[in-house]
Amino acid sequence: MALGPLTPLYAFLYHAAPMFASFRGAAKCAFLSALFLSVLAGVGSETLWRRPDRPTPFLMAAGTLGLRPRPRPGRGKSFLPVLAMLAASAAGGAGLWLLAHGNAAQDAWASLLGRLASTGVADVAAGTLRDPGFLEASARFAAVSLLAAAAKLALFGGLLSPAARACAGTGAGWAFIVLAVGEMLVFAAGSRASMSSRLDRPPAWKPSLLDRAGDARVLHEGPLHANSGMVWGSSNLWGHDPLLRKRYAEFMAVSQGLQPDQGGQYLRFTRTSPVLAILRLKRVLQEDPGRPVVTVPGAFPRVMLVRDWAVVNGRDAVLRALFLPGVDLAKLVILETPPFPGAGVQRPSQGPPAPGPPISWKTGGSARVVAETTDELDIEAQTPDPALLLVTDAYAPGWRASPLEGSDQREYRVLPADHVLRAVPLSPGRHRLRLEYSPTSFRVGAIVSALALAGFLGWTARLLMRRTNKESSGSLSFPS
Fold this sequence. Notes:
Elements: H1 8-16, H2 30-50, H3 57-64, H4 75-100, H5 102-118, H6 126-129, H7 132-160, H8 162-168, H9 170-191, H10 206-210, E1 217-220, H11 229-232, H12 246-255, E2 281-285, E3 293-295, E4 303-306, E5 309-311, H13 315-322, E6 333-335, E7 366-372, E8 376-383, E9 387-391, E10 399-403, E11 415-417, E12 421-426, E13 429-437, H14 440-472
Parallel strand pairs: 1-2, 5-6
Antiparallel strand pairs: 2-3, 4-9, 7-8, 8-13, 9-12, 10-13, 11-12
Helix pairs in contact: 4-5, 4-7, 7-9, 8-9
């Protein structure tokens, strides 16, 4: 997975293995691959240090081919240092060649980068790979990296040599550890990206960013500050979210005049639809100095009661109904299933809704949030008539509603409303309920993780017991 289409196995798994084609950004798996390879390298290093007379990879590969060589005691002690020195010579020679052979080295390096660009997996513009300045700088960086690798391999081979182990004894082992830790620290220091957390913002934006009444949201029209809300403390309508919900992406795409399937992580905003008010959008922040802030009227509150609904079937039909001119979404909720038993396609109207704020009727209906965490939302509501509790947060199948003490209703359901929001049908009376995000996949993953942890701890305990028993019997060999 981490190497992507560069391996012949990837295409087979992509078309044959279930769910394999659903992974987005295969290169991101390189982190997990590097993590597990580091663990394997640590285990192998410890094994080599404790049992250098074990069969080397060369001997193991020969045995796999049927040659069945017999490892002789001490062969690993001499073979591995020689192998490390040969690798150091190859890396050092390549680095010196890149530094010393001017045009020839530049041409060879340019050819290598050209082949990389032809694969289509390089996250660098093709023009950059052909830029003379970039070619020179990248070739110099590669040469220095090869020389550093050669030095580390030479040290590694020297520490594994029988002479070093005989002279230094335990000190060689500590030197081996210092070398490994030092290499990791140097790599981390060179790979760390840093920036100031104090991002500049136009002075005209400050009042909008500080206004959080009713959990209002803002939209950064340009891509430069799409994720700046995490630093500024504002609630953003949009950002570069790699875990974007499909319903949300479809809704936002239609709001910009696109087809639902054109929604994605990097959506470009060219218009401000009034329908975005259902997502609590109150202001749009623009890079234009002449008009830095655009106010969106009618931003919805966090929770509200609505007593009229219509059931519409099909994604495209629902989105088309939401953006029809003249539809007042503060008084009518578009649902995909009937909210109450026996309800038809549309609830019969009992006269026009009473004027006033959407969360309060003349008969006294009300709703408010009393507590919240990242995964839970506690709500109190009171309604004299059957109504829908509309929560203007994104809908996902994992949201569940349960009654709290003092609630008149014993069961609650969470329905998709207006394609992207949540709706909970309420019977007449007083309600105290909790919305909790608890998807089935999370619970299954927690069980699998607990079983894996138990197995790991059990295996670790077994290894420790074997080591203790062998040490007590006078054997210091490392358990296999």
